[in-house]
Amino acid sequence: MKRGTRTFEFRGGVLHCRRTFSVGCYRAHSFLAFRGIARRRGECDIAVMTAQDFLSANKDRFLEELFDLLRIPSISADPAFKGDVIRCAESVAEHLRKAGADRVEVMKTPGYPVVYGERMVDPSLPTVLVYGHYDVQPPDPLDLWTSPAFEPVVRKTELHPEGAIFARGACDDKGQMFMHVKALESMVQSGEQPVNLKFVIEGEEEVGSDHLDGFLEQNKDLLAADVVLVSDTGIIANDTPSITTGLRGLSYVEVKVVGPNRDLHSGLYGGAAPNPINILCELVASLKDEKQRITVPGFYDKVIELSAEEREAMAEAPFSEEEYKASIGIGGTEGEGDYSAPERMSIRPTLDVNGIWGGYMGEGAKTVIASEASAKISMRLVPDQDPDEITQLFKDHFESICPKSCKVEVMVMHGAHPAVTPIDHPGYRAAALAMETTFGRKPVPFRGGGSIPIVTSFERILGLKTVLMGFGLDSDAIHSPDEHYGVFNYFKGIETIPHFHARFAEFHAG
Ligand code: BES
Ligand code: MN
Ligand code: MN
Question: What is the CATH T-level fold of the domain 250-311+349-416, as seen in this structure?
Answer without folding.
Answer: Alpha-Beta Plaits (3.30.70)
